[in-house]
């Protein structure tokens, strides 16, 4: 399939957010990164909401007081998102101009939200993402700690095959070498395809993510070329296209994939790209998105405010 | 034609270390055994015994390889024909790996635990039943598969287990498998949709739990004469992935096992979360209802068998990389260079000190001794006489033994110069006439030589050496993957250094040392003790810090210390949890048999820091010395609650092993600790 055609299916692509951008409903996940707070202030929306993730471990005194908060005590992403969005259910109807800042979102919640919106016939909506100028401790940045379990993301649980002889695991490798290790260990019998982020959000981030990848305990010593693919860290549409092409390549070179597991561990835009691919091509198939879940995440892992990108999604 | 050198050089024969990465062919190809058929590893899990078994073991202990070796796919490869394999081996191995079940989806989504329990049991049984039929299929004869009457009878019998019959009946064996798969897919869809809909609609549980798992083999036995004496073994691997509720179903299958069916359940050491069954929750009974085998512990107990296994494992990998290698089990150790112990490690020790000696700088151990003695002895000539008497320039290691002997024997009132001269004479006698001429001195040397050598390395900015095939086997502690990982890294380091490992010459000590340090880091990173990660790692670090502090002290209380004696029952909750997790993740090994405390009748448990981690802290890999940790100290080290307190406890335990406190404690009168120099030089 031609690249243009693939892109046409997914949305018009990535672009800088226009100065006069506006929407009806704006939802952002609260954390202490400057890029999240500044973007929230700048967006022109009829109604704005902070989503409060429990994983950041904020106390009530740390939370904003002048904006509506979307909260839930539920644990799993499906239960949490459905519960948290209940109070604005009447706003989330087909035709709403909805914008979601994915920057502070937990990746499973972000992906589940895409599935949920699609189910509720909100197939077209906008995502925005603001890049950091730098992560706080370079290659030592810890994004998550103490992984509890690796499991399928709600809404991305496929119907799997008993035959596991040709399972494939596609890992979107990012900074979290600990997370990558957990995922590889969980699907240890699967053949590994790694998606590295290139170009990265900034030039030195690519090198940093490689540095961390090399620390993965079970990472293959030698990675054959066909096991490596490169995708932009800040463009879900490019990630989407790379996934289409890489998996076509694998399918044409070897026998049919028995079970496919996708695990986006790099940026939020990459997670959106993975979810997009899943929703377009993998629903009802022996394929799942899996993720290493941690009990808590750093409240602030980045410095500065980089570029803000707009992604207009069409899930159809 | 490719040369041996090229093949072994380019391809690291030890690259693949995980059985889950192997193809069925590789499972067969890389299989090695500890002995003949009677002593085979397969006998460990007794596939033809009807008693279910939990096969436990640390990561990489070989559970998956063993279970996959017993799977139908590898049975077929062994005999070229599955029917023949079943006839000869008398069992059919139905291998399932729990990670394929994605068990975590059977939770939450607005449903109760009880609902999920029954839905999981239903889906899992469909999975097992479909897997059973798929595994058996290659063993069926064409006349069976193509016979309408046989198919009809089979399907009729199997569908008897179902409360509701399908609208369209399966017509043959393959359609029966497809029917079971379709039912399972319907469950998957309903389970997945419930994330959004909050409802589990469209699932009707069509049979009673256990009916397919136990019933289908019974039907097959009735319909196929060839399988009448076959044991159907469900090999269910990586059960640690199951939740506690899900394991209850598995335990229920163990309890209600029927007919010619049995189970082998593979899990990590920590993997069994409950022994309870469904319903009343009554636990299954070990030995009466199931057996339990801890694979790596068994291999550690049978050390000679493990050594055989280790050597064969290496040779099989070398042969697979290139058949031309002519290394044998006997000659394998010769492929690894080792430290020369000749003449009391003279050459090694001189190599370490020679470059700094050439600059005229005093050896660190002598300089420390001089400084400490000078702080206590007013007469500097006595200090110098002591240093000169204990100095042994041509034997740096024995020079350290001299100092150690001095530290061990010194006490208030002793004539220190006379003591130094006696030690000097002992050293001379040993060098001239051997151990019998200076038995006590030699005893000290033989106990502490590895610690003193490690100190020498460290004092001169080098890493302590671990080398030799026997050392590698000892480091791996009954876990084949540890051995393979060590060899993978050593091979890489050796090749990178321009050597031709296993082809020409020996693998240098340097390559082994670097490879072992790499493998140690891998081991430390590879174990992922989930949410208790930092607690466990901190606890092991504290243990190791204490062992290291003692090993590198001027007068270690124990030689080759890597074991601790603890009474786990007295520990605080957090400490007990850290200890348990550290054992589960093989950071600590429980040493078989309990030990009594030295001064009373308390029974203590001995824990060894896994030798795979020894290099990380430069501690000993040999299990010789052990120290008892009282409850208060053990709690401080394990709980992580008071890092400063833990450091204080380590200092308190070791400060009198270090200069200058070591000399002060032995020479200064305790009745007047404030007086700096009571020593009179006599």
Q: Would you mind describing this structure in some detail?
A:
The complex is a heterodimer of chains A (316) and B (682). Chain A folds into 2 domains: 3-135 and 303-314, Rossmann fold, CATH 3.40.50; 138-297, Rossmann fold. Helix content of chain A is 29%, strand content 27%. Chain A has helices spanning 3-10, 34-42, 77-84, 107-119, 177-186, 203-213, 236-253, 268-281, and strands at residues 14-16, 22-29, 44-51, 68-70, 98-101, 124-130, 134-135, 144-152, 168-173, 191-197, 228-231, 260-264, 287-297, 302-303, 308-314. Chain A has a 7-stranded mixed sheet with strand order 1-15-6-5-2-3-4. In chain A, strands 8-13-12-9-10-11 form a 6-stranded mixed sheet, sandwiched between helices. In chain A, helix 4 (107-119) links the parallel strand 5 and strand 6 (124-130). The two termini of chain A are 18 Å apart. Helices cover 52% and strands 8% of the residues of chain B. Chain B is elongated, with a radius of gyration of 31 Å. Chain B has helices at 4-10, 24-29, 42-45, 63-69, 72-79, 82-89, 113-136, 142-145, 148-159, 173-197, 211-223, 244-255, 295-301, 303-321, 342-358, 364-376, 380-390, 396-409, 416-433, 439-459, 469-476, 480-496, 509-526, 533-551, 573-584, 614-617, 631-639, 643-654, 661-667, and strands at residues 53-57, 91-97, 231-237, 261-268, 291-294, 561-566, 588-596, 603-609, 625-628. Chain B has 29 helices and 9 strands. In chain B, the strands form 2 sheets. A 5-stranded parallel sheet of chain B has the order 2-3-4-1-5, sandwiched between helices. Chain B has a 4-stranded mixed sheet with strand order 7-8-6-9, covered by helices on one side. Chain B is α/β, with parallel strands linked by helices. In chain B, helix 12 links the parallel strand 3 and strand 4 (261-268). Chain B starts with a helix and ends in a 15-residue tail after the last helix. The chains are: A alpha/beta (316), B alpha/beta (682).
């Amino acid at each position: 399939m031609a690249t243009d055609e693939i892109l046409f299916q997914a949305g018009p692509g990535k672009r800088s957010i226009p100065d006069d951008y506006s929407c009806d409903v704006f939802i952002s996940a609260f954390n202490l990164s400057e890029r999240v707070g500044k973007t929230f202030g700048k967006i022109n929306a009829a109604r704005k909401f902070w989503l409060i993730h429990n994983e950041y471990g904020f106390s009530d005194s740390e939370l904003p007081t002048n904006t509506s908060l979307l909260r839930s005590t539920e644990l799993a992403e499906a239960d949490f998102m459905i519960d948290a969005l209940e109070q604005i259910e009447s706003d989330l109807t087909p035709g709403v101009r909805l914008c979601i800042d994915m920057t502070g979102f937990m990746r499973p919640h972000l992906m589940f939200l895409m599935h949920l919106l699609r189910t509720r016939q909100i197939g077209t909506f906008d995502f925005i993402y603001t890049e950091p100028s730098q992560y706080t401790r370079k290659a030592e940045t810890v994004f998550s700690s103490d992984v509890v379990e690796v499991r399928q993301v709600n809404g991305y649980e496929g119907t799997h095959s008993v035959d596991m002889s040709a399972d494939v695991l596609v890992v979107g490798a990012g900074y979290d070498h600990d997370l990558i290790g957990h995922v590889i260990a969980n699907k240890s019998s699967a053949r590994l395809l790694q998606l590295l982020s290139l170009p990265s959000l900034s030039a030195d981030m690519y090198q940093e993510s490689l540095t961390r990848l090399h620390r993965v305990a079970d990472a293959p010593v030698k990675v054959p070329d066909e096991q490596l693919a490169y995708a932009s860290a800040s463009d879900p549409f490019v990630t989407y296209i790379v996934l289409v092409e890489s998996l076509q390549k694998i399918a044409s070179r070897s026998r049919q994939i028995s079970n496919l597991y996708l695990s986006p561990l790099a940026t939020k835009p990459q997670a959106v790209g993975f979810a997009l691919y899943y929703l377009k091509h993998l629903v009802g198939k022996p394929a799942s998105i899996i993720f290493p879940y941690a009990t808590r995440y750093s409240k602030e892992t980045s410095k500065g405010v980089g570029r803000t990108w707009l992604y207009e999604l069409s899930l159809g | 034609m490719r040369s041996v050198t090229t093949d072994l050089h380019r391809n690291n024969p030890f690259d693949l270390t995980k059985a889950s990465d192997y193809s069925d062919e590789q499972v067969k190809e890389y299989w090695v055994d500890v002995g003949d058929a009677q002593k085979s590893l397969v006998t460990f899990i007794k596939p033809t015994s009807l008693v279910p078994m939990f096969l436990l073991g640390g990561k990489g202990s070989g559970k998956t390889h063993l279970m996959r070796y017993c799977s139908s796919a590898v049975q077929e490869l062994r005999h070229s024909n599955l029917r023949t394999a079943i006839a000869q081996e008398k069992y059919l191995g139905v291998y399932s790996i729990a990670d394929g079940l994605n068990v975590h989806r059977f939770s939450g989504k607005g449903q109760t635990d009880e609902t999920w329990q029954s839905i999981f049991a239903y889906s899992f049984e469909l999975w097992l039943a479909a897997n059973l039929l798929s595994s058996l299929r290659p063993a069926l004869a064409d006349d069976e598969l193509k016979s309408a009457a046989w198919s009809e009878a089979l399907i009729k019998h199997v569908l008897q287990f179902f409360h509701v019959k399908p609208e369209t009946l399966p017509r043959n064996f393959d359609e029966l498998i497809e029917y079971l798969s379709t039912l399972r897919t319907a469950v998957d869809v309903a389970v997945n949709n419930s994330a959004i809909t909050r409802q589990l609609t469209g699932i009707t549980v069509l049979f009673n739990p256990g009916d397919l798992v136990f019933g289908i083999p019974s039907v097959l036995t009735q319909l196929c004469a060839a399988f009448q004496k076959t044991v159907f073994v469900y090999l269910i691997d990586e059960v640690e992935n199951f939740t506690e509720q899900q394991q209850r179903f598995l335990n229920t299958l163990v309890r209600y096992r029927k007919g010619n069916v049995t189970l082998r359940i593979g899990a990590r050491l920590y993997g069994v979360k409950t022994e309870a069954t469904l319903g009343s929750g009554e636990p299954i009974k070990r030995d009466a209802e199931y057996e339990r085998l801890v694979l790596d512990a068994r291999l550690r107990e049978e050390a000679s068998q493990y050594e055989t296994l280790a050597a064969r494992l290496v040779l099989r990998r070398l042969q697979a990389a290139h058949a031309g290698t002519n290394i044998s089990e006997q000659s394998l150790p010769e492929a690894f260079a080792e430290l020369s112990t000749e003449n009391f490690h003279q050459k090694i020790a001189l190599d370490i000190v020679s470059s700094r000696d050439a600059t005229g700088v005093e050896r660190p151990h002598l300089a420390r001794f001089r400084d400490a003695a000078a702080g206590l002895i007013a007469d500097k000539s006595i200090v110098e006489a002591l240093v000169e008497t204990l100095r042994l320039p041509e034997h740096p290691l024995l020079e350290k033994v001299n100092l150690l002997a001095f530290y061990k024997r010194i006490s208030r009132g002793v004539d220190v110069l006379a003591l130094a001269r006696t030690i000097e004479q002992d050293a001379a006698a040993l060098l001239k006439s051997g151990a019998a001429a200076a038995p006590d001195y030699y005893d000290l040397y033989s106990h502490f030589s590895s610690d003193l050598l490690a100190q020498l390395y460290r004092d001169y900015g080098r890493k302590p050496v671990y080398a030799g095939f026997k050392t590698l086997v000892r480091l791996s502690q009954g876990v084949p993957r540890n051995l393979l990982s060590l060899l993978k890294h050593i091979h890489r380091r050796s090749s990178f250094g321009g050597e031709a490992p296993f082809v020409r010459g020996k693998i240098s000590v340097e390559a082994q040392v670097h490879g072992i340090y790499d493998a140690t880091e891998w081991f430390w990173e590879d174990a992922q003790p989930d949410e208790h990660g930092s607690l466990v790692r901190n606890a092991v670090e504290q243990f190791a810090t204490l062992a290291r502090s003692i090993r590198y002290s001027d007068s270690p209380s124990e030689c080759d210390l890597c074991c601790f004696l603890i009474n786990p029952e007295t520990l605080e909750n957090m400490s007990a949890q850290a200890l348990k997790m550290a054992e589960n993740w093989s950071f600590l090994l429980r040493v078989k048999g309990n030990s009594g405390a030295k001064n009373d009748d308390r029974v203590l448990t001995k824990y060894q820091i896994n030798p795979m981690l020894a290099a990380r802290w430069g501690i000993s890999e040999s299990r010789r010395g052990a120290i008892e940790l009282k409850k208060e100290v053990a709690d401080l080290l394990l709980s992580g609650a008071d890092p400063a307190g833990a450091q204080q406890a380590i200092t308190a335990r070791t400060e009198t092993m270090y200069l200058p406190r070591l000399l002060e404690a032995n020479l200064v009168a305790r009745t007047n600790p404030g007086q700096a120099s009571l020593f009179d030089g006599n």
